[in-house]
Design brief:
By secondary structure, the protein is mainly β. Helices cover 2% and strands 51% of the residues. Strand 8 and strand 9 form a beta hairpin.
């Protein structure tokens, strides 16, 4: 599994010096625009269908390995219909993984482990189910955790999506609490090839220690 990184956001402020008679004109259309999307032919295509040409880069990222991610940018100018030149302030990859059918996941015990994990945010965009998740990890550990979205259909025809987490032993207890931290990150699961019906209901399930959470959409 790719490592999940916490996304950092930058805040830009303008300082006015006492006694300054005039300020240089700024034609920037929008500061700190935050969006999620995919890199296609060197351009960032947002889930909303906007094309961002990255003409200025203030973020160090290996675009050769970049497929899907989150970006903080300043929109400099509009150059076409839904196409913009931008200054990139921050850019990071988003972990992406195809959901697994429950019967297939059952064949691999590592994919059905339910170590604690929590869905902090959830939304749909660009054909993906996107989540911000939190999880426990051991301080200083290089162990790569395994995250999967396991799906099935219930008797009512609803899709049951179970977020599974295999921490490979890095599970919080009262005894080891001083050695653990809570990590967070963004993850996207492509869903259009699985859920094809209109107006269907999805049930989300996950385990956070002794509690099991669920959400309906």
């Amino acid at each position: 599994m790719n490592s999940i990184k916490k996304v950092l956001f930058y805040t830009i402020s303008c300082l006015f010096v006492l006694g300054l008679a005039s300020c240089k004109k700024d034609d920037t259309l929008r500061y700190n625009n935050i969006t999620m999307g995919n890199l296609v032919n060197g351009k960032f295509i947002s889930d909303q269908g906007n094309t961002f040409n990255m003409v200025e880069m203030n973020s160090s990222v290996d675009l050769k390995k970049f497929k899907r991610g989150i970006m903080n940018c300043d929109v400099l100018r509009e150059v076409g219909e839904k196409e913009y030149d931008v200054r990139v302030n921050y850019m990071d990859t988003v972990f992406t993984k195809t959901p697994i059918l429950a019967s297939v996941a059952a064949e691999d015990p590592e994919k059905t482990v339910s170590d604690p994990i929590h869905i902090e945010q959830l939304w749909f965009s660009g054909g993906y189910i996107n989540m911000m998740i939190t999880y426990n990890a051991k301080i200083g550990s290089e162990t790569k955790h395994l995250v999967n979205l396991v799906y099935s259909k219930d008797e009512q025809g609803r899709y049951v999506l179970n977020l599974r987490h295999n921490a490979f032993g890095e599970v919080w207890t009262e005894e080891n609490s001083s050695d653990m931290i809570i990590g967070s990150g963004y993850v996207s699961f492509p869903i259009t090839k699985i859920v094809k019906e209109d107006n269907t209901k999805l049930v989300f399930k996950w385990k956070w220690h002794k509690d099991v959470g669920s959400r309906f959409d």
